[in-house]
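Posting this for the archive.
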Amino acid sequence: MGIFDKLTGTQRPADGVVPASAKTLRTALLGLNRPDLPYVIRDGTPEDADLVAEWRLAEPTWQHFFVQSQLSRAIRIRMRLDHERHELRALQEAWEIGRVGNPARLEVTSQYTRGPSRTVSTRRSIQRADDGDLEATETFRFDSSDLVDPLRNTVLRSGWVWRGVVFGSL
């Protein structure tokens, strides 16, 4: 792995893994969708991509979850399948988000970044332990790797390269 690969988050499958067809990989990625997960993987044609994975920020059933999470960044991953090279080019985009109104709703601000990044939001409560000492207990955890890792792992298990895109087009 070269230094540029490290900067872009590019990873290669294990040696000897035979690349699956593009159709099989696409089906496997779409198969990661579940209604109980805070993200969705969908057709990316409107965003000039083959697939898009993003947080379900706009879905009413997930609004309360994201408002309560103290999440500060919205993430979207646009993906393009390179059939010849058996590479999935992944462009991770992020926007700062804030809470507005009452009841609170999420709103995207103008700050935009692209390239691999990780966002972790946690909430802890302080309470007394049985021995009387104070202890912090994690009551909530939200990690952007919960979106990226299943995608990347599926791509690698399918024998494809996960190629992070920072510069240029998808």
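Strands lie at 39-43, 51-55, 73-82, 87-100, 105-114, 120-128, 134-143, 161-164. Residues 95 and 112 are 5 Å apart (CA to CA).
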